[in-house]
Amino acid sequence: MSQFYTVSWFSAGVSSAVATRLAIDSYGVDEIIYIDIEDQHPDSMRFVKDCERWFGRPITILRSPYGTVERACRAAGWINGPRGAACTRLLKKRVRKEWERSNAHHNLRYVWGLDADEAARAERIADAMPQFEHLFPLLDHASGNGMGKAEAHAVLRASGIKRPAMYDLGYHNNNCIGCVKGGMGYWNKIRLDFPEVFAARAKLERIIGASCIKGVFLDELAADAGRHGGPIVDECGIFCEIIGIEPATERLTGGDQLTADTTQPAVAQADAKPAEIAQ
Length: 279
Ligand code: SF4
Prior knowledge:
Blueprint lengths: L4 E6 L3 H13 L4 E6 L6 H13 L4 E4 L5 H8 L3 E2 L2 E2 H17 L5 E4 L7 H10 L4 E3 L13 H11 L5 H4 L15 H10 L1 H14 L30 H4 L24 E2 L11
Parallel strand pairs: 1-2, 1-6, 2-3, 3-8, 6-7
Antiparallel strand pairs: 4-5
Helix pairs in contact: 1-6, 3-4, 8-9
The structure holds iron/sulfur cluster.
C-alpha cells in the first residue's frame, strides 16, 4: 500500500486519459476525479464512461453549484484577466480546493496529463502546490523525451476508445464549448460550429462589461480575424507497442459497477458550496 493517496485529476481530454492509464499501471491510482461543467460537449460524458472501462474503475464526478460558465462569470463579475478566468476559479479550482479540505487527512499525490511540450506548465503546477507530490506520466514517459499530444492520441486510438467529439470538430482540447480563454481564431470557429454559444457569450460580455479576448468584444470581432489550426492527426508511431496498450474491452472488471448508461455520471458527489471568490 502506497504511503500516498494518489489522485488523477482527469479532464476528459486525451492526454489526461492516457496519463491516467499510465499512472494506474506504473504507480497505482486511488481515485480518478473529473470536474464536470455543463458547458462541456455532451460527448464528454460518453468519453468518461468509456474511460471508466479502460481504467477498470469508476470515475468520481464533482460539480460546482454554479454549474455553467455563464453563472460563474456573472457571480464573479468578470470573465477573463491576468489572474485567470472566473469560470476556472469557481467551477474547477474551488471544487478541487474543497475536495482537498475534506481529504486533508491523506498524503496526496496528484496525476496530471501534461505532455512533452508542457514541461514549463508542469513546473508551475509543482511550484504552486508544494504541499502535494505530483506525477506527470506523459512528461516522464520512459520512451525518450516524453509523450507528445499526437502520440497520446495514437495511444488512445489503440485502446479502442473514440476521442471526445470536440477533437474531431477541429479543436485542440476538450474544453468547454465557448471557452473564455480562446483567441480570435477560436471564437470565429465557435461562431460557425456553435452559433448559439457564440451569441450567448457575446451577450454575457456586454452584461458584464468585459471581453473574453483582450480589447475585442465578440459582437465586434471581424469574421476573418485569427486562425485556428486543424484537427490533431494521430502520429504513426510505436508508442502503443512500447507501453503495451490493451483495448478498453480487456480492462472490464466485474466488481466496479460500471454501467452502459452514457447520459448519467457513474458517481455524482455532493457539490461544493458557493463561497467567496478567492484564489
Ligand atoms: S475550459 Fe474554458 S470556459 Fe471552461 S472553465 Fe476552463 S476557462 Fe472556463
